[in-house]
Amino acid sequence: MTIDTATLTPRETYAYLSGAVAPRPICFASTIDANGKVNLSPFSFFNVVSGAPPLLAFSPLLSGRDGSAKDTLNNVRAVPEVTINIVNHAIVEQMSLTSTAYPTDVNEFEKAALTQVQSDVVTPPRVGESPVSFECVVDQVLPLGKGPMGGNLIIARVVRIHVRDEYLAADGTLDIRTLDLVGRMGGADYIRAVPESLFEIPKPIRTLGIGVDGLPVHIRNSTILTGNNLGRLGNLEQLPTPEEISNLASNAGVKEALRGSLEQVHRLAQAYLKRGETKLALTILMA
Ligand SMILES: Cc1cc2nc3c(=O)[nH]c(=O)nc-3n(C[C@H](O)[C@H](O)[C@H](O)COP(=O)(O)O)c2cc1C
Q: What is the pTM of this model?
């Protein structure tokens, strides 16, 4: 299916965008109005957008019903400061509760029983329960659309980072295994980054991988190896040497395995790939 966005209503378009651009991190934004009234609301149109200067950006949309501005947007226009608090599983239900459209004078910290902790340099308080909080000064507010669901990109410069001690690794960095972060999917669905759902991919940054196009054609055209298998093989810096291939082929156990069909050999290589033995897998495939 291919869709021309001009044929969709804003709500339909939003459903495709927010369903596919996921999981999204959640910015739990605390702001204050000109009279110092505190507001706390979640926004998943959110990300880090610059390392130096350190910038985060999130986007309160204009109301889908009447195009009115949300309190958070009005607040940062009046007082250009925000604390952006990170949401983990321990506070996900309280976070959700704060997204209720309470009247402007209601403090969502109180509604959700979250702890208001005074910030060091900005006026909005931070969320005591959040594993990580960022005190930010708002650099820019960019209106992106005038009607219902129009975005308003708030670009916020981080001036202080607070990390709760229990989420620090021994070397002072963030321990992503204990953070237990949540992300927003489409609709009412969330995802939880538990250790069992984390996986590592060798970084192709320092090395120059040969690329899938650098692999012999019988490997590229394999009916067994998946795109992920080929991607991992293509991340190797070089093909095995003829010597490495012949040494392996003369190994008694491997010799036996290589007598099987091409399919069996590819399955054997796939098993080694699964165990992280990429070089050996490629050598088998080439033997
Ligand atoms: C997890 C989550 C993510 C949300 N993300 C956004 C978002 O990116 N943009 C937006 O306009 N509203 C978003 N909402 C809805 C707002 O939180 C909601 O409209 C809230 O009432 C706005 O509060 P405010 O008027 O106090 O600023 C989200 C709600 C939840 C629960």
A: 0.93
